Amino acid sequence: KQEVTQIPAALSVPEGENLVLNCSFTDSAIYNLQWFRQDPGKGLTSLLLIQSSQREQTSGRLNASLDKSSGRSTLYIAASQPGDSATYLCAYYNQGGKLIFGQGTELSVKP
Amino acid sequence: NAGVTQTPKFRILKIGQSMTLQCAQDMNHNYMYWYRQDPGMGLKLIYYSVGAGITDKGEVPNGYNVSRSTTEDFPLRLELAAPSQTSVYFCASSYQGGGGEGYTFGSGTRLTVV
In sequence order, what are the beta bridge partners of B4? Predict the structure, then answer.
């Protein structure tokens, strides 16, 4: 069964902290992996897409890594801000091209 | 450039009623998808389409139907609404399968069945 697990389910940090969100998956034959942000009551915003041949992607204060051999991806957020508060979803593309989602990590950054 | 547009944004249905959730994209994407998201959960694939005239079931298709008569539109039909279909529904599209360029998501339709 193709599963994605995100740890922790919820996280509360003070402003300015660096933090890591974890994602693990059971499927060893994944294609690409994508991190999304979801604000309450809103749709999904793509943050980073890691292609199959890549090991990491960076955008501003965000860095995502992918280790297919261990079935893990991490999203690193530097110098967190209250505006980063949202749910972060990890999802990978399986060999059939379908996007398999984790349940998300709900992040709260306190001023 | 509107991207993926979903209508309506909110809807309350009574048990047994039917409705169609609309999804349209203006990016000339071949692939379109319908997902549902239950509270505190990730998204689960309902149906998908790889092009006009072609649709296929995803992980949770029961109680839903789709059609793809044009490249732009991919409506989702609920024939006999049940409380278990209370969820947030997201439509997405991509130029190619396999996530080569990632998916673009609509803003969602929040459906409550009472």
Answer: B25
Q: Give CA B37 to chain center in angstroms.
A: 11
Rounded distance between C-alpha atoms, residue B51 and residue B95, angstroms: 10
By C-alpha distance, the chain A residue nearest B96 is A97
- The Cα–Cα gap between A5 and A12 comes to 19
- State pLDDT tens for residues A16-49: 999 999 999 988 778 889 999 999 888 888 899 9
**What is the rounded distance in angstroms from the CA atom of residue B45 to the CA atom of residue B34?**
6
Q: What is the pLDDT of residues B60-96, one digit of tens each?
A: 999 999 999 999 999 999 999 999 999 999 999 988 7
Residues of B in contact with A97 (CB under 8 A): 31, 97-99
Q: Hey, are the CB atoms on B107 and A43 less than 8 Å from each other?
A: yes
Query: Quick check: A74 and A66 in contact, CB under 8 A?
Result: no
Residues A32, B42: C-beta atoms closer than 8 Å: no
CB-nearest to B99 from A43, A45, A93 is A93
Name the 3-class secondary structure at A82: helix
- A54 neighbors A42 (Cβ within 8 angstroms): no
